[in-house]
Amino acid sequence: MLIPKCKKCSKSFKWSTILKASWDWGGLKPVECENCKTVHFIKPIFRIIIILIAFIPVLFEGIIFSTFKSHGLNAYAFWFYPVFGTLLLLLSPFFIRFYIKE
Ligand SMILES: [Zn+2]
User: What UniProt keywords are attached to this protein's entry (predicted)?
Assistant: First the structure.
């Protein structure tokens, strides 16, 4: 998994730029290449991928929490979802795919 690159000039986008564009309150925002100013749109599939990944721990909740229990880490189980959510948010720019409108 690599940070996406500009489709025209191959310059890598900044992680922070993509993060802001993909988690804007107004929805998915287009990202402009710093180098050649080509506007890139985020593929809607990105949202679906993130939602699917977010549901993975829900499916394995029993296993995850019994692992915490068996290690005597019950007190930390509470932190699992906030930590997982934050990690998913921070890693989301790596899952993003762009397209260019011709
Ligand atoms: Zn470019």
Answer: Membrane, Transmembrane, Transmembrane helix
Give the Å distance between the CA of 66 and the centre of ligand 1: 48
* Residues having C-beta closer than 5 Å to ion ligand 1: 6, 8-9, 11, 33, 35-36, 38
Q: What is the largest CA-CA distance in the chain?
A: 57
Tens digits of residue pLDDT in 31-86: 999 999 999 999 988 888 888 999 999 999 999 999 999 999 888 888 999 999 99
At residue 51's C-alpha, the angle toward residues 8 and 7, to 5°, is 5
Going by the DSSP 8-state scheme, the letter that residue 5 receives in this structure is: B
Question: How far apart are the CA of 7 and the centre of ligand 1, in A?
Answer: 7
Q: Would you state the structure tokens that stand for residue 57, as one six-digit string?
A: 């721990």
